[in-house]
Design brief:
about 450 residues, alpha/beta, OB fold (Dihydrolipoamide Acetyltransferase, E2P), Rossmann fold, 7-stranded mixed β-sheet, 10 helices, about 25% helix, globular
Length: about 450
């Protein structure tokens, strides 16, 4: 434990940079101090609330000298909610800092310095507000009224909201309509103290042109008034084409769709378009939350791949296979590897609907799928893994196949850099393109081209 700084100490601190979670970072006696809400160039008064061996966490007490990039947050519950991390910063500056986070990750984890010109400027979002096409919000009964909200960062404290400015307006509308109908019918959200009630959460997804919406009701217990709710809901909002209930009684299971799923109304999918392709989305299937930026993300993958039409490609961590859709015209064959059954089902529906015949869905983990392809010559591999990155087993398999190119879509600069550090003996970085998929959050998406040496 660091002994030079103690919990409760209050002092002035100069903030030098932004951290991976949007916090300001300054240094005191060579110890990094992380402070939520602080910005680079600022001088602040900070109170130390946690001390570790290699860092400390501080509470912002006062801004002595404000950054020229500081802005007033547009959300009234921004500081309580924690869903966004950078509303207090100029938007253009957030783009610079997201690029810098990738540069810093490369400097920290790669054995050799990478020319900064290889990390391109962050591609901004034309519409940084109301971009989320899906929202999953807890519901609680408070003072006799149902409320939607968020749980405060690192706590179980429920923060009420009327609407969210980064959610699609149609989602906000459907959420508020649902809450009012719950009140009218006496379908209670969870009581925060007793944990009793019917509705735990609402999940709402809308399509690209606002002609279809999907509502999933995550239940703590069944309600005999649910059929009345569904009837009134679709009468008031006919664009809702799919209503699903999930009986989720096991508190130890994480996730919204870990329970008995029933179709209460309509289909089990809604239809949306992306990049000119039609996708059928089941409620639990993964789909990028920002459709406009997702199109750019996949277009950048295609551009960096520079496909010639003869390649055999792997689309790993395929999800509902958007990468496969985007590249199918430019390759001979695509093997889309995905372990989640719901995503595979959605992928097959979408490929058939778009008349794509050269993509083969392999419902499997990466290792097992590649063992069945060991006689194939793989020219290029596309990856869009979760925040944990590729992992050693996947990297070893990549090295065994030695495809000429790797296209790595990342949502975490640290795991991106760590993975590349294990590939750098065989591959070199040609280009990294940051993309602002989630404006006003600290999340950093990017696409990187790695070429076999």
């Amino acid at each position: 434990m660091n002994q030079t700084i103690e919990v409760g100490a209050i002092f002035n601190l100069k903030i030098n940079k932004i951290g991976i979670n949007g916090e300001g970072i300054g240094y005191k006696d060579r110890l990094a101090i992380f402070v939520d809400g602080a910005l680079p160039e600022e001088e602040i008064s900070v109170e130390i609330i946690e001390v570790y061996e290699n860092r400390a966490v501080g509470l912002l007490k006062e801004i002595i000298k404000a950054s020229s990039f500081r802005r007033t947050p547009f959300c009234p519950i921004y500081e309580k909610c924690g869903g966004c991390q950078t509303q207090h910063m100029d938007y253009e500056k957030t783009l610079e800092d997201k690029r810098d986070l990738i540069i810093q990750a490369y400097l920290r984890y790669l054995p050799h310095k990478i020319p900064s010109k290889l990390i391109k400027p962050t591609i901004s979002a034309k519409h940084p507000l109301n971009y989320r096409n899906k929202a999953s919000l807890p519901i609680q009964k408070i003072d006799g009224k149902n409320r939607m909200g968020m749980y405060q960062k690192n706590s179980n404290e429920f923060i009420e909201m009327d609407e969210c400015p980064i959610q699609d307006d149609m989602i906000n509308h459907i959420m508020k309509l649902s809450i009012s109908l719950f009140d009218e019918l006496g379908i209670d959200g969870i009581n925060g103290k007793t944990k009793r009630g019917y509705v735990k959460s609402l999940v709402v997804r809308v399509n690209d042109d606002h002609t279809e919406a999907q509502v999933s009701i995550i239940l703590n217990q069944k309600s005999n008034r649910l059929s009345d709710f569904v009837k009134m809901l679709v009468e008031k909002e006919p664009r809702i084409k799919s209503v699903i209930s999930v009986l989720h009684t096991n508190r130890h299971k994480i996730g919204f769709f870990e329970g008995d799923i029933s179709i209460l109304y309509g289909r089990d999918t809604i239809e949306t378009k992306l990049g000119g392709y039609t996708f059928d989305l089941k409620p639990e299937a993964f789909f990028q939350l920002n459709s406009e930026q997702a199109d750019i993300f996949y277009q950048e993958m295609v551009r960096l791949a520079d496909l010639k039409g003869r390649e055999t490609a792997i689309d790993a961590y395929a999800g509902i296979a958007p990468v496969s859709h985007y590249i199918h015209q430019s390759v001979r064959t695509v093997y889309a590897i995905e372990i989640d059954p719901a995503s595979c089902a959605s992928a097959r529906l979408s490929l058939a609907k778009n008349h794509i015949t050269n993509v083969k869905i392999l419902q499997s983990d990466f290792k097992r799928a590649l063992s069945g392809l060991k006689e194939k010559k793989i020219d290029i591999m596309f990856f869009d893994p979760p925040r944990t990155g590729l992992g050693d087993d996947t990297i070893d398999l990549i090295k065994g196949f030695k495809p000429k190119k790797l296209i790595y879509g990342s949502c975490n600069p640290s795991t991106l850099a760590k993975d590349i550090s294990k590939l750098i003996d065989l591959y070199e970085i040609k280009e990294t393109v940051p993309i602002d998929m989630f404006p006003y959050t600290s999340l950093v998406e990017s696409v990187t081209l790695l070429s076999l040496k």
